[in-house]
Amino acid sequence: MPRNLIVSGGVAHDFPATSAALVDVLAGIGVESEITEDVAGALAAPPPTGLITVNAFRWTMDGDDFADERDRWRFETPESVRRTVLDHLARGGGLLAVHTASLCFDDWPEWAEIIGGAWRWGRSYHPPIGPAKIRLGSGHPIVDGLSGFEVTDEVYTDLDVLPDVEPLAYSEDQPLLWARSMAGGRVVYDALGHDTRSYAHPVRRTLLRRAARWLLGDRL
To answer: Does the predicted model carry a pTM greater than 0.85?
Structure first.
């Protein structure tokens, strides 16, 4: 059974609930997941897993936003974490980055290069959570044969997306899902997933399962 380490935790989101939802979704294809909020401890060395999932909001928290949460959630990315992520990919591992992962590890510039984009404070934003119509592309096993759908979620807007990214899903003109090969492994970024309503939608559950299958390759 393939194993998945879910790095979780942070502010402004119910990460215990969404990480539990990820466990449930991926269990449907035989993936066994472990959840941790100890990012530095869990990634001090490459975990014995085929998949690492980042469903977290861990960054330097510079400025006044979330000041009352700073002592608990402020995170400066240790060299060990950076090395472990790169070693995991170099061994052919998969990396699933979900929703707030694009805000994580902001003191590590290569993180944006790994996942293919980043939230930029002062430019990126999202409208209030609500119904979002999702349009799917084609030409990739994660999306082929699936129809667009509507989900209650946040639509991350004006992310800093790298030029070589080929989006697989949009809301209007905003890219929300892509897959790429990086540093010897595979990476998927999925900007959806604010709360459990997103994880309850059957098409999104299928997308996540297909993403995990693609990331794990012949491990499934």
So the answer is: yes
